[in-house]
Amino acid sequence: MARFLRTWTDDQLAKAVAEEHSWRAVARALGLSSTASWALIHRRAEELGLDTGHFRGKRTWSDEMLAEAVVGARTWSGVARKLGAGTDRASIASLQEIARRMYLRASHLQL
Prior knowledge:
- The chain contains six helices and no strands.
- The chain is mainly α and 111 residues long.
- The chain folds into two domains: 10-48; 63-101.
- α1 (10-19) crosses α3, α4 (63-72) crosses α5 (76-83) and α5 (76-83) crosses α6 (89-101).
- The N and C termini lie far apart (44 Å).
């Protein structure tokens, strides 16, 4: 297993996590080009308790936007439409899983 020399500080990591919207962008902000180093920065960010709720990855919506959509909708399709996400079964299942991991109250939502 390859080992990586840490070239950034916890303060630099915290700043990058606060300012960026994905792990790729955080790695880039820290001057890291290898995707293998993402696990290291991800693990350290978790150890530091850094908030990544604003990360979107490939999504066009944030966790906060999902939370707002869940509160204001009556159906999972409505949540998806509000977020501009797909309304197919796989997309809805993905939204449900993310909401579950966020501990959102969604029992009022119908399929």
